[in-house]
Every structure is written in C-alpha cells, then in structure tokens.
C-alpha cells in the first residue's frame, strides 16, 4: 500500500482533521492531477443518499456475513467519483466504539480485530457493503456506513445480531463473587462473552427468568424476571428487566450473564460403568481427539442442536450439568433447560466433550 494513500486512509479513520477541510483535503490528496497547489472545491449540485438494511442482519459465530450499504446521487451523476467509505462499530447509544475499515476505491485498511477479516464488497457501482468473515462473538452490534464525496458526507446504520443464547453464570465459590473484569474473564473461559442488554432482553422475551443479578458488557448489573415474586424486586413490579444500573467495576460483585453463539463443532457424551473423576473425564475427551466441553458449548448445543441427555456430565469449569429439551420423569423440572448439579468436589460422572470441525 503506497505510504501516501495509507496515511490518507488512517487520517480518514482518525477524524482528527478539521471537518470544514474534509473535502478540500481529500480533493488535494486524491486528485490524479494534483500538482501540490490548492484547488477550489466545487459542488456538483447532486444529493448524496446512503442506505443500509432497515431490518437486522442475522449471523452466527464463525460464519461470513455481508452488511448491506449502497449510495446514490439524486440526480444521478455519470462521471466517476472518488468516493471514500468508512465503517465504524457503535455502542448501543450510537456513540463510536471503534473504527472497522476505511476504503478509497479498491484500496482499504481494516483495524484491530477486523484486520484480515473485513473488506468492501466489490459488486458494482454505488456499492459500499461490508463483508466480515469468520464472525466473532464480539462482532454483534450496530455499524455505521459512512460515504464521503468531497464536502458531501452521509451515513446510515445497520444492526448485526448473532444468533445465540444468554445463560447466567456463577463461579464455583458461590453467588455474587465476581467483579466486572472477573465476570468478563469467566464468560470467555466458558466459550462465551458478557451479554449485552439487547441480548439479555431478547433472552427475556424467549422465557429467561433469573432472580440473581449479573454483569452485562456495558458495566451495568441487571436481571430478567418473567414471573414477579417477592425476592425478585417485589410482587408489585411488572415483568421485565430489573436494573441496578452501572456499578463499580472493581469493587462491586455479582454473577454474570454470558452470551454464546452457534457451535463450530460437535458435542458428544462419554460414560464409563463406574463414572469418571474430573481429571479422568478430561483425559477421556483428549483420547477421542476432543476437549472437555465448556458451559457455553453445552448451552449452545442444547438450543441450536436440540441436545437432550438425561445423564449428568463433567464440564471444563468443574461443574456437572445435563441438557433437557424434552422434559420427562426423573430428568428434573417440567421445563426444558440445562440442569446443574453444581460443582461437586467428589463424585464420578460421565463427560461432555467438544470437537471443533
């Protein structure tokens, strides 16, 4: 990538230059006939229009996805324009979280975790769609597509939502023991990330009811209630998401709400006539070319693959759980779900193994 063009792309991403000079600056740098002299910026009299999908775009962990974005001029301009395209990831309040990619013509630069995974779809005139390969859990959220033509600058927003599942998590040493940073870590250890409010809300609409407060990705502490009851905010409150608001990320301690997406592999169950200890369970999975499954793996398999097993098995965090999609006698409560025996210090069980494709 030529140094001058790369410097221009980086400055476009940083936004540190004075807005008034945006078009003037880019016309000077990007004009093929630039002789280093200042030029006047002329307005073409056409309106720049940018459009993205009004509906959310759905994907899942490990997939490839295209976030649609197109632009046009009203009235249309026949002459070829030197268009600049910038994609940014946004927070839920629409403030910028970080840059994703900037492009001029067929040359682009991606940033951070998107480097090597993001590019502009080269599918014809007026195309500004963003292609993301190997979608990560953290990619879920809002994205701004910004198109710049000289002094004209228009944008629109598209929402990328990962198909996944939210699950509450308590560590082995008990309830309300995690500060924000520890909650973030334990979710990652379970093949998941801290859930966003939108993900928790979606889980609530699908039936999640949990009376213990947990951290979310934005540093707030909340919990979903479908059936109001006295210990869970009181009987007088309507069903909904209860919120403690933002909490101190180091001092305050709660549980965690984790988010996991569809699996990239398969889960299978191994058993032994006399059961296995945790260490024996880990070794058994390794002997099969797999690893002991994490909690996020089991929840994803239960939701997306319909995994149903009325035999408890070890998981990587030392807990013992089993997934039920078809409730029946001797398999726990009357509702589908992932049952837990907690974190037994002793005992012999089967094991759930995970093998990535």
Automatic annotation (TrEMBL):
Give one GO molecular function term.
Answer: hyaluronic acid binding
Q: Which PROSITE patterns match?
A: IG_LIKE, LINK_1, LINK_2
Where is it mainly found?
secreted
Identify the Pfam families for this entry.
V-set, Xlink
> One biological process GO term for this chain?
central nervous system development
Where is the protein found, in the record's own terms? Secreted, Extracellular space, Extracellular matrix
Q: Which residues form the Ig-like domain?
A: 46-158
Which keywords describe this protein according to UniProt?
Answer: Disulfide bond, Extracellular matrix, Hyaluronic acid, Immunoglobulin domain, Repeat, Secreted, Signal
Q: What SMART domains does this protein map onto?
A: IG (SM00409), LINK (SM00445)
Cysteine pairs bridged by disulfides in the record: 211-232, 310-331
What does the entry list under GO cellular component?
extracellular space; perineuronal net; synapse
- Give the signal peptide, or none: 1-15
Family, similarity comment: Belongs to the HAPLN family.
Indicate what this protein is called per its UniProt record: HPLN3 protein
Organism equals Halcyon senegalensis
